[in-house]
């Protein structure tokens, strides 16, 4: 297609403002799918995505639209992930486009991720077209939202489309604005190939599929291509686009977005943001902006039933085929047996993987407390290590300095919840950087240690604001922190799975809380069991589980034999689910419950 007739755009929005619904409408309007095929949301194709209503992987669809000027246009629509954990993927998708539809819910107005996404879009020099969605809702206030877009974001909203993706209002106007206002891509099809790797995924039939934006040159079947950052070479065996059904094409040229396959076995060879060129006539330099994504949150995943270890390994390997951004390596714990230490882009990413393992692969899992990556400077010039697992913390005498990652968080909320939100941030060692008001709503910026956010910050924020606060963050680097490893000892033996790294100031209350919970969670034994929280050798909290008086069956006075049998059987059942810890049996539920409450 002639460059003049191509438009590449993405849709940006806060979660739930209607991005996927609008994308589906645009596909339907331009004839990509029949009504029947539209029954399920097309762009969100994973179960969990559907249930949570979020988009995990970016997807792209090519639409053909004959505009009112009588010309036929090729529109490439990119759906982008809506959550902060996937910020880098969003950024790469945006880099592949010249414009964006900014979807704002007519009843909710501008929210934190609307802003975060819009700023990214502005950074990529996009033409941004505001769309006020859900005008069918009784609570819709389109004029107020227009004003918010102008006041808060500073965009001209006078020509914002008033739309309802649900009822199909405003769809044609959106398509016309795309054609008229979004600039056509630039590029030179005769130059050496430069294509950006926007996304990749594993397809059971096609193998690894790569989504590309061709910046210069042409990509064709039979070409030998090279990944400039990854360093590997591959033979292109298929070139095409999605409508959203797969369609093979002879080539993708400068300005176009589409997919290729190249007999790639392992998704880890495909790095989002990499530059693809040809082996024969390579580009002189890669495209700018490539960044290797690194997991920031780690936790251990263990099978509840030790016999499921192989199944867990197979399932994790399969998931990894589709998601190169999470990492895993084998780990063994005295308390939990064999499992994996896994790394994620953020907490939501962690939850998604955990949920998919549980649901799609039918595994019962224990997840240890999430931990961030600490940098530890060792004494006596012994260098620096990265700590992914609290259990590996060196002896305090060998530590010169511990550094922890910090984030800058922007929270957007109605004024009445501000007080409790400030308190929450304060309790989590936050440093307030900015506070402004926009139309009855507060926007507050905090610097926070990531370690204080990974536990339950987001849940707490949602609950104290009744769901009205929205939150966005990015990392701002490492800072020294007064951090210590807190060990939990049951019957004088440290339980590695329960150890965690905490700020010295909150160690005591955390330790006390953990001991109190474990006291209730671990059943009585024939002997007294001390439960202690300790830092180094120093005990900071202590509880004791009293010894059991009688055998469970003693109550039955030998009368009812079958009842006695049942009780014994029940006891045996319970045993199976216990982890023997030294001489103490700790039920799985105790680990889960103790860790859940962080
Ligand atoms: P996304 O998270 O931005 O992709 O949002 P979705 O497209 O998944 O939509 C979130 C929810 O809003 C879904 O329940 C949709 O059915 C609903 N929704 C989307 N557009 C409209 C609309 O125009 N009107 C109404 N009433 N609901 C809508
Ligand atoms: Mg969606």
Automatic annotation (TrEMBL):
Annotated keywords: Cell membrane, GTP-binding, Hydrolase, Membrane, Nucleotide-binding, Protein biosynthesis
Listed GO MF terms: GTP binding; GTPase activity; guanosine tetraphosphate binding; ribosome binding; translation elongation factor activity
Protein name: Elongation factor 4
Gene Ontology process terms (BP): positive regulation of translation
InterPro entries named among the record's database cross-references: EF-4 (IPR006297), EFG_III/V (IPR035647), EFG_V-like (IPR000640), EFTu-like_2 (IPR004161), G_TR_CS (IPR031157), LepA_C_sf (IPR038363), LepA_CTD (IPR013842), LepA_IV (IPR035654)
Binding site for GTP: 16-21, 133-136
Originating organism: Blastomonas natatoria
Functional description taken from the UniProt entry: Required for accurate and efficient protein synthesis under certain stress conditions. May act as a fidelity factor of the translation reaction, by catalyzing a one-codon backward translocation of tRNAs on improperly translocated ribosomes. Back-translocation proceeds from a post-translocation (POST) complex to a pre-translocation (PRE) complex, thus giving elongation factor G a second chance to translocate the tRNAs correctly. Binds to ribosomes in a GTP-dependent manner.
Catalytic activity: GTP + H2O = GDP + phosphate + H(+)
Xref: Pfam families: EFG_C, GTP_EFTU, GTP_EFTU_D2, LepA_C
